[in-house]
């Protein structure tokens, strides 16, 4: 009964506002990897884990008036901002979701840049590889992002903190 | 001569209704086609339940995989003299194109949803595991199978290679649009693929389209848009998909309750338990699934029996348009009434959303969100397609989502409590055949 929609709405009721589709994609993926039961299917897509299902679900929630999407024009692309609406809050009240409390994780993720979350999400995507293999993989797949050793270490520490939170 | 460069004594051709001929010259490709894991794709339909709406849609993942291979073969032929193209990647691209759907199971969308599976994971497993496909790939050189798996998983270092198999204008999409249009018999999936192949240019990390080919790409985007609404999102197909999903849910639920099936569903046990081994996954094809559905029509459990009988005999659920924004209270009221009428709402009252379907529209997206289609302008600059094309721009921002409420009209007609029956019919606006806009 639209439980997956409700789970995303619950996330927005915690996050209040999310700036950037990329940031949103990575936040949900990272939370999923921290065992928050979002069911959107992710694959690797050029810039890291990406879910087409999530994109479409967000579009649905906007069309239903549950989320407010604002589009901001940047030099060569658009950036999108998302916020829950009163209708969305009302929709959410009809569900009793069995979800863990992950508000502290959302708060931590909100503080980080989308560039950093891209790195964190990619590290999590390759967590079956050894630490050296993952670092090599990231250098090979994301040469333009030019992540430094320090950033990677910071991302590893962040994952540890998040999973322990 | 090494296995990598070994050619067949003559070019083998497969007659194909979409591309006329599929040409095979490499020994490797010929051997891959002959593996049991690839031959299995003959027994998995490309469009799952769509044949219950468009009876011609009986084509398999086997046809499609050969088609994708043929498109990539032609693209590579065109790239031969391009400076950005690395000729050494040829065999890797062809293998990845041929094998990209290897992990699809029967009705994979429903199976994935119910049993929390991922066909891409199984594609990787078949390529890297103890299989004939793996053995053939490793004959090229140790580690070749890993490279093929990385291309398909989009984690290969050369992004140009990846984008041939998987991007917003890739061989996979071009083949399935043309093939699905051909087999369903609809006329709106057509576009000039030959023209698109001629204007594709390899860049450092992606395939781009020469700007003079923009109109051919517009046609491709429009056909994608039309096919989604007319074929992939077809409400009758979705009804069949809803019933199929509910059968799997019911069978799993019964298994968990210790229900005694008349014949132990051995092929499903690992799916019910949530631990599916590769060899078990490979064994399950559509013939096996149909066999069980046939048997389950004789089961004592009324719901499983009814759902299987519906699926096998195309006695599908009816539907109404549903707006979760304004009509959730209607759904909740119906939920209650269905229970009172003895109809289990978790099986017989189903909201289906377009986001539950595995298809995507063209979206330019945000920077570094996903790779859009880029046009190569005469001055060498790259421009995102929807910024140049009014047609693409006009459909990029349109509403493309939809929700429906599915229910069994025939069972509602049999409800004996007349006030409840009247109320349900009133809420679903049932007058004639069903399928209404409220």
Helices and strands in order, then pairings?
The complex is a heterodimer of chains A (165) and B (438).
Chain A: H1 3-15, E1 17-19, H2 21-33, E2 43-44, E3 49-50, H3 52-63, E4 67-73, E5 78-84, H4 86-93, H5 103-110, H6 114-125, H7 131-141, H8 149-164
Antiparallel strand pairs in A: 1-5, 2-3, 4-5
Helix pairs in contact in A: 1-4, 2-6, 6-8
Chain B: E1 7-16, E2 20-26, H1 27-33, H2 36-39, H3 61-79, H4 90-99, H5 108-115, H6 119-128, H7 132-138, H8 144-152, H9 159-165, H10 171-184, H11 193-199, E3 200-202, E4 207-210, H12 214-232, H13 235-256, H14 269-273, H15 278-283, H16 286-296, H17 302-313, E5 318-321, H18 328-340, H19 345-348, E6 350-353, E7 374-376, E8 382-384, H20 385-388, H21 390-396, E9 403-407, H22 409-413, H23 418-428
What does this structure look like?
The complex is a heterodimer of chains A (165) and B (438). Chain A has 165 residues and is an alpha+beta fold. Chain A has one domain. In chain A, 56% of the residues lie in helices and 13% in strands. Chain A contains 8 helices and 5 strands. In chain A, strand 4 (67-73) and strand 5 form a beta hairpin. In chain A, helix 1 (3-15) packs across helix 4 (86-93), helix 2 (21-33) packs parallel to helix 6 and helix 6 (114-125) crosses helix 8 (149-164). The longest helix of chain A has 16 residues, at 149-164. Chain B is 50% helix and 10% strand. Chain B contains 23 helices and 9 strands. Chain B has helices at 27-33, 36-39, 61-79, 90-99, 108-115, 119-128, 132-138, 144-152, 159-165, 171-184, 193-199, 214-232, 235-256, 269-273, 278-283, 286-296, 302-313, 328-340, 345-348, 385-388, 390-396, 409-413, 418-428, and strands at 7-16, 20-26, 200-202, 207-210, 318-321, 350-353, 374-376, 382-384, 403-407. The chains are: A alpha+beta (165), B alpha+beta (438). The interface between A and B is large, with 41 and 37 residues. Chain A: It comes from Compostibacillus humi. Chain A: This is YwgA family protein. Chain B: Residues 61-177 form the HD domain. Chain B: GO terms for molecular function: dGTPase activity.
């Amino acid at each position: 009964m639209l439980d997956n929609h409700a789970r995303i709405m619950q996330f927005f009721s915690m996050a209040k506002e999310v700036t950037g589709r990329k940031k949103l994609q990575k936040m949900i993926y990272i939370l999923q990897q921290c065992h928050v039961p979002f069911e959107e299917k992710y694959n690797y897509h050029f810039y890291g884990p990406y879910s087409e299902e999530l994109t479409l679900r967000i579009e649905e929630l906007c069309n239903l008036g549950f989320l407010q999407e604002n589009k901001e024009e940047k030099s060569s692309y658009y950036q999108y901002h998302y916020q829950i609406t009163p209708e969305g809050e009302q929709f959410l009240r009809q569900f009793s979701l069995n979800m863990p409390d992950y508000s502290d994780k959302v708060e931590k993720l909100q503080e980080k840049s989308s560039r950093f979350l891209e790195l964190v999400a990619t590290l999590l995507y390759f967590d079956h590889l050894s630490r050296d293999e993952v670092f090599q993989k990231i250098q090979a797949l994301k040469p333009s992002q030019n992540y430094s050793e320090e950033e990677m270490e910071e991302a590893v520490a962040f994952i540890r903190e998040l999973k322990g939170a | 001569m090494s296995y990598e460069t070994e050619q067949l004594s003559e070019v083998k051709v497969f007659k194909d209704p979409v591309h006329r001929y599929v040409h095979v010259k490499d020994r490797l490709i010929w051997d891959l086609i002959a593996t049991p894991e690839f031959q299995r794709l003959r027994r998995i339909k490309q469009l799952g339940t769509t044949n219950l709406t468009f009876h011609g849609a009986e084509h398999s993942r086997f046809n499609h995989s050969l088609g994708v291979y043929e498109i990539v073969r032609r693209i590579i032929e065109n790239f031969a003299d391009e400076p950005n193209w690395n000729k050494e990647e040829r065999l890797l691209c062809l293998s990845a194109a041929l094998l990209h759907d290897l992990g699809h199971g029967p009705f994979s969308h429903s199976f994935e949803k119910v049993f929390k599976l991922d066909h891409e994971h199984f594609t990787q497993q078949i390529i890297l595991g103890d299989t004939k496909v793996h053995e053939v790939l490793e004959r090229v050189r140790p580690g070749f199978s890993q490279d093929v798996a990385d291309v398909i998983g989009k984690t290969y270092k050369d992004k140009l290679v990846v984008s041939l198999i998987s991007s917003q204008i890739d061989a996979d999409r071009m083949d399935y649009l043309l093939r699905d249009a051909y087999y369903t018999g609809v006329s709106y999936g057509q576009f000039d693929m030959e023209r698109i192949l001629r204007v594709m240019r390899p860049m450092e990390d992606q395939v781009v389209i020469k700007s003079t080919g923009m109109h051919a790409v517009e046609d491709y985007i429009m056909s994608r848009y039309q096919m989604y609404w007319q074929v992939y999102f077809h409400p009758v197909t979705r009804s069949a998909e809803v019933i199929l999903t509910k059968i799997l849910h019911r069978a799993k639920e019964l298994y968990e309750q210790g229900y005694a099936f008349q014949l132990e569903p051995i092929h499903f046990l690992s799916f019910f338990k949530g631990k599916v081994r590769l060899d078990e996954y490979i064994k399950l094809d559509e013939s096996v699934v149909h066999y069980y559905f046939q048997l389950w029509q004789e089961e004592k459990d009324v719901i499983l029996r009814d759902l299987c009988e519906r699926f096998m005999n195309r006695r599908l659920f009816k539907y109404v348009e549903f707006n979760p924004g304004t009509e959730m209270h209607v759904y909740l009221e119906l939920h209650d009434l269905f229970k009172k009428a003895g109809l289990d709402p978790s099986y017989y009252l189903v909201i289906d959303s377009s986001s539950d379907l595995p298809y995507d529209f063209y979206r330019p997206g945000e920077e570094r969100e996903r790779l859009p289609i880029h046009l190569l302008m005469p001055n060498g600059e790259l421009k995102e397609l929807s910024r140049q094309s009014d047609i693409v721009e006009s459909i990029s921002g349109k509403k493309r989502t939809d929700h429906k409420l599915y229910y069994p009209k025939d069972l509602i007609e049999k409800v004996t409590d007349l006030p409840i029956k009247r109320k349900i019919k009133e809420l679903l606006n049932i007058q004639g055949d069903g399928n209404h806009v409220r």
